């Protein structure tokens, strides 16, 4: 594992614990020699984690769509910035550059990115790990929703392991580094295993 994509809010949230977690995760990434891949913004939790990595001497790679956001939002101190044509290209580039994914608290965009990565993992499009940094229980409703999907027969139980949930960034990074995807899981309960 060399690069970790971090999805995070473009706002800082209303609890200082979210910002502290972003900064702490940035420090841990730099300490472990892992480069950050993220959306390229200078504001919100996105900006906090990038600044934290850079302040520790680590590498931060941003991916930002051309013309989609105001110029002052783009982080100007990154190790590398990719400008792409739109959101689909942005997500594809972030996926290509990354060996693992972490979601800090965030809004609709962060949730959409989490579900895309986990869906693609379920379909076997990639076998990269995805972690949720569950600060102050932020992701507990999502974890409960996945558990409900398993109970209701929509998610194979083994595939609930596609989401690695931790409150501590150090433990989360260690779990991502040792991740092995579930094998031989038949996603389609009405079809025979391949």
Give a verbal description of the structure:
With 194 residues, the protein is of the alpha/beta class. The protein has a single domain, classed as Rossmann fold, CATH 3.40.50. Helix content is 39%, strand content 16%. The protein contains 6 helices and 7 strands. It has helices at residues 16-31, 44-55, 87-97, 108-123, 140-151, 169-177, and strands spanning 3-7, 35-38, 60-65, 80-84, 100-103, 130-133, 163-166. A 7-stranded parallel β-sheet has the order 4-3-2-1-5-6-7, with helices on both faces. Helix 1 (16-31) runs parallel beside helix 2 (44-55). The longest helix has 16 residues, at 16-31. The chain starts with a strand and ends in a 17-residue tail after the last helix. The relative contact order is 0.15.
Summarize the helices and strands and which ones pair or pack:
Blueprint: E1 3-7, H1 16-31, E2 35-38, H2 44-55, E3 60-65, E4 80-84, H3 87-97, E5 100-103, H4 108-123, E6 130-133, H5 140-151, E7 163-166, H6 169-177
Parallel strand pairs: 1-2, 1-5, 2-3, 3-4, 5-6, 6-7
Helix pairs in contact: 1-2
